[in-house]
Write a structure and sequence with these properties.
The protein is of the alpha/beta class. It folds into two domains: about 5-210, 3-Layer(aba) Sandwich (Rossmann fold), CATH 3.40.50; about 215-389, Beta Barrel (Elongation Factor Tu (Ef-tu), domain 3). The protein contains eight helices and 18 strands.
C-alpha cells in the first residue's frame, strides 16, 4: 500500500476521498492548504478558510488520520492572484482554478507531500486517472468523472504526465449523491456542506470587488454594436486565420450607449454589471479594449458578436496531457472540445500549423475570450489544452 497525502479542503468531496483511501489500506495524511491570509487584499468580509480548516480537521479526526495545515499563500499570490490581476488588466479572461491545479496542488503541494515521504497526492476532483502501456512506454490517461453533472477533468487540463503519475482521484467513479451518502453514513462534519463556489481553496469571493482592490476604476464609454454591423459580413471565411481570429471593434463601428467603471472588470459574454436600461433585450459584452478603456456590447443572446467559428492557440501555449499524441505541423484531427467548465463538449477540428493550433467548431461557440483554456477530448479522455489568443 502507498503513503498518500490528501488535500483536505473542508468540503465533502475531499473528505470522502480520504475515507476511500484509508479503506483501501493506504497510509493517509490529511493536509489543508492555507492559500490566503493577506489583509491588504480582502477576499470577503468573512474568513471562510478558517471554517474550512476547522472542518478539515474534524474530518481527519473522525477518520483517525494525521492532519496538518500548510501555508502556501506566498506561492498562491505569485502564481495565481498576480496572474489574475495581470490578465484582467490586459483585457483577458483567466481561469485561476486551472492554474491552481497546475501550479499549486500538483506542484507546490505535491513537493511538500513528497517531503513527507508521500507516494501520491489525492484530491476530491470528479475525474479519473488510468495507467496504460503503449509502444512508447507507460502513459497516464486523464478521464472524465463518472458523474456527468460534476465532471471536473477540465480543471486538470494543464497537468503533465509527471504530475498525473503522482495523482489519485478516489471519487472519480462516484456520483455526487453517492459521495454525500457515504459522508452521511460516516457522520462526517462535511456531509451536508454546500459546495464552494469561490476561488481554488480560498472560498467565497465577489470577483468585481476583488479586482477593484488592485485595478483602479476608470470611467469609459460603452459602445453598442448592431447585429447587422459590417464587421460580421466582412470576413472571407475562406482561410483558418480569418475563421479563428477574434472580432476587432472600433468606436466608429457603433454608438455610445452608456458608461462603465473599467473595461478590465468585464469579459466577453458578460451580462451583469452593465446597467444599461431601456433595451428590448439584454445587453452582452462583445469586446473589451483595456488600452482605450472602451467596452463594446450587443443586444440579445443571438447577437453574431457573441459567436465564433474558431479560435487560435499560439505554439508556446499548446499543452498536451498525452504527449505521445502530439500533432505534427500540417496535421488535422477531429476531436471534442470545451472552453469552460460544465460547457457541453462540441465537435471541433484541430489544425496544427507552424505558428500554432487553429480550432474550428462544427457549431459556432459562444463567448470565446482570450485567456480562457480550450481543452480537447477523444471521447471521455482529455488529451490537451491551450490558452486562447
Amino acid at each position: 500500500m502507498a503513503k498518500v497525502v490528501v488535500g483536505l479542503s473542508g468540503g465533502v468531496d475531499s473528505s470522502v476521498a480520504a475515507y476511500l483511501l484509508k479503506e483501501a489500506g493506504h497510509e493517509v495524511i490529511g493536509m489543508f492548504m492555507k492559500n490566503w491570509h493577506d489583509t491588504t487584499v480582502t477576499i470577503s468580509d468573512e474568513c471562510p478558510w478558517i471554517d474550512d480548516s476547522n472542518d478539515a480537521m474534524l474530518v481527519a479526526d473522525s477518520l483517525g488520520i494525521p492532519f496538518q495545515t500548510i501555508d502556501l499563500s506566498d506561492e498562491y499570490r505569485k502564481r495565481i492572484v498576480d496572474y489574475m490581476f495581470a490578465e484582467y488588466e490586459a483585457g483577458r479572461t483567466p481561469n485561476p482554478d486551472v492554474l491552481c491545479n497546475r501550479e499549486i496542488k500538483f506542484d507546490v503541494f505535491l513537493k511538500a507531500a513528497e517531503k513527507l515521504g508521500a507516494d501520491f497526492v489525492a484530491t476530491g476532483h470528479y475525474c479519473r486517472r488510468e495507467e496504460i502501456d503503449t509502444p512508447k512506454g507507460k502513459v497516464y490517461r486523464l478521464l472524465a468523472g463518472k458523474d456527468g453533472n460534476k465532471d471536473q477533468s477540465y480543471f486538470l487540463c494543464q497537468v503533465s504526465q509527471e504530475q498525473l503519475s503522482k495523482a489519485l482521484f478516489p471519487i472519480g467513479e462516484l456520483t455526487k449523491p453517492q459521495v454525500r451518502e457515504i459522508a452521511s453514513q460516516l457522520g462526517l462534519a462535511t456531509a451536508d456542506k454546500k459546495d464552494s463556489q469561490g476561488l481554488c481553496f480560498i472560498g467565497k469571493v465577489r470577483l468585481p470587488d476583488f479586482l477593484q482592490q488592485q485595478l483602479q476604476p476608470r470611467k469609459g464609454d460603452i459602445i453598442e454594436i448592431s447585429a447587422d454591423s459590417a464587421i460580421y459580413s466582412s470576413r472571407t471565411n475562406n482561410n483558418l486565420e480569418d475563421i479563428c481570429a477574434p472580432y476587432v471593434y472600433k468606436p466608429e463601428y457603433g454608438k455610445v450607449t452608456g458608461q462603465h467603471n473599467g473595461a478590465h472588470y468585464f469579459t466577453i459574454g458578460q451580462r451583469k454589471g452593465l446597467n444599461i436600461g431601456g433595451k428590448a433585450e439584454g445587453m452582452f459584452v462583445l469586446g473589451t479594449d483595456t488600452v482605450n478603456n472602451i467596452l463594446y456590447v450587443g443586444m440579445g443572446e443571438q447577437h453574431p458578436g457573441l459567436y465564433r467559428s474558431g479560435l487560435f492557440i499560439p505554439s508556446k501555449d499548446i499543452h498536451w496531457v498525452r504527449e505521445d499524441l502530439k500533432m505534427n505541423t500540417g496535421e488535422t484531427r477531429s476531436y471534442l472540445a470545451r472552453i469552460r467548465y460544465r460547457q457541453a463538449l462540441s465537435k471541433v477540428e484541430l489544425h496544427r500549423k507552424e505558428e500554432g493550433l487553429y480550432i474550428t467548431f462544427e457549431t459556432p461557440a459562444k463567448a470565446v475570450a482570450a485567456g480562457q483554456f480550450a481543452a480537447w477530448y477523444d471521447g471521455e479522455e482529455l488529451l490537451g489544452s491551450g490558452v486562447i489568443s
